[in-house]
Amino acid sequence: MQYDVIVIGSGPGGYVAAIRCAQLGLKTAIIEKYTTLGGTCLNVGCIPSKALLDSSEHYHNAAHTFETHGIELKNLKVNLPQMIKRKNEVVEQTTGGITYLMKKNKIDTFYGIGSFVDKNIINIKKADGSNEKITAKNVIIATGSKPTQLPFLKTDGKRIITSTEALNLKEIPKHLILIGGGVIGLELGSVYARLGAKVTVVEFLDAIIPTMDKTLGKELQKSLTKLGIQFLLSHKVTGATVKGDKVTVTADSPKGEKVVLEGDYCLVAVGRTAYTDGLGLDKIGITVEERGKKITVDAHLETKVKGIYAIGDVITGAMLAHKAEDEGTFVAEVIAGQKPHINYNLIPGVVYTWPEVAAVGYTEEQLKASGTAYKTGSFPFKASGRARASMDTDGLIKVLADAKTDEILGVHMIGPRVADVIAEAVVAMEFRASAEDICRISHAHPTYTEAFKEACLAATDNRALHV
């Protein structure tokens, strides 16, 4: 069967690429190795983790804040099987929606492992062992990523687990030892901490969420400590062993002292590795980076083989679903002869703990390192009327602006619903707005977005009104 475009992988990057190709009149096929579409994000990533985060947040509020609101409950308890069941239903509905979108856009869907025979022929190895070959002028590799394994600490899927298994535990851990203080680990760690688990985070670096502005890491650590999570920063994990239902994790402290932790589950969340195994890239002359297994692409996201493109987690850059979506649209439009554009500096990053964390643009550390003259303004949520009304006063918004032009260079938020609030900053920065531009825009009262305006006021001659 001959296609204009074959997409390998049906995650956010792959399925969006396929839809956009179809919209542009290109005959399109998509290949997925699993039995459901949606990739990591919809099946074992973004969507199920947010479902559990939401459920655990409801329980935590019922246990800790409802009484203050004047709501009294008795015999409150967690029904973990029902919580997991609801999460699975959300996943099923969402992945089913992707199947519908493929049919609606007349995209042919193939289930099996896709691999290159040559640059135009893709072999699909199906679950029953049979093979089918299809051909295309263009191929988009969108195979995503998998949890990174530590060479000296292998997961067993039972007691030493990855994020995938953490989404389907049969019990609330008594003590969850979390290796890695990044986004995935902290989100899942906060789920079980809210439900009553003791959680200890062991992080090699000296800060959590280390790729984000350091202010955010410090503030998030304060909030998660209130939740009961303990942090061992600058600690190097050296191993883990399992005996029955007990996991023992060993680490070296900053002073070189041996630290021993005992728990019933150990979640390894030290990042993700591009999933490029089994694609047959060697047959078309493409090699991957030794570390991270990434595929090299040019400014058009095309590999060194003409007509072969790669997007999302398999190429350099942040491993974010919305980055992959943007790249999927970008490549489809390139293939169609258009001239699309992506500003990678303005792709926001979000951590869905509570309080939420969100950021876009340059960090303060990056501006200092580049020698850029900047000014800063911040506003705490404890000074926000809306935040006080909802009892969500942890966190702040920090704005970084050019010292001469006042153009906003970076916005860093931690607080209630900042995963949504950050969109205003992204729009403003896409139009190269100044801090004063935001100051002059009317913001509804009372809202969380007022905190962004106040931070911009603080960056503009220290004009914040409510602090």
Task: Please explain how this structure is put together.
It is built from 13 helices and 22 strands. It has 467 residues and is α/β, with parallel strands linked by helices. It has three domains: 2-147 and 273-344, 3-Layer(bba) Sandwich (FAD/NAD(P)-binding domain); 160-269, 3-Layer(bba) Sandwich (FAD/NAD(P)-binding domain), CATH 3.50.50; 355-459, 2-Layer Sandwich (Enolase-like, domain 1). Strands 1, 2, 3, 4, 5, 6 and 17 form a seven-stranded mixed beta sheet that branches. It has a five-stranded parallel beta sheet with strand order 8-15-9-10-11. A five-stranded antiparallel beta sheet has the order 18-19-22-21-20, with helices on both faces. Helix 1 (12-23) packs parallel to helix 8 (321-335), helix 3 (46-64) runs antiparallel to helix 4 and helix 3 (46-64) packs parallel to helix 6. The longest helix is centred in the N-terminal third of the chain and has 25 residues, at 80-104. The mean pLDDT is 97.
